[in-house]
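Mods, move this if it's the wrong board.
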Amino acid sequence: MAHLSIIGTGNMGQAIAAVAGRGGHTVQLLGAADAATAATGDIVVLAVPYPAVGTVLAERGASLAGKIVVDITNPVNFETFDSLTVPADSSATAEIAAALPDSRVLKGFNTTFAATLASGQVGDLPTTVLIAGDDADAKATLADVVTSGGLKAIDAGDLRRASELEALGFLQITLAAAEKVAWTGGFGVIA
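Not the wrong board. Structure tokens:
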């Protein structure tokens, strides 16, 4: 079984913790005020808003060496909801990977809403977590956490695919913010 440290105690952090718990994995939930508490998990999930990632990396970067680090962020411009805040030829995950060269950085959970993680369903379909990264073993480890928690996991490719996942997450968020889809719904995958 895996041990996860989830940095961020909001809806997504709690939903991911519940998925891991359903699969029999252990979870350490850390809030923003817990910077002095070591992240003990082999998998560390960054369940914070993208603007907070820089602070988390400044406080914890060195301690994340050798760990699987899962970026769930969507770098949306939340003032305008009209763009992503990273260059078009990059991604939040690529920036995190560059800052953590000794970690195995993955993109995951950013195309799901907390409600669909909690329920395990998107409409009539099982919730699917898309995972991108350059380390096949790290992706398999995260996929095991996801599937043992009752969800589906799909390997979306190498870390370059994070930009497409962020674009998909951005689209889903903007549709929900405009009340065109529900925050309890989202995109389903038939595979």
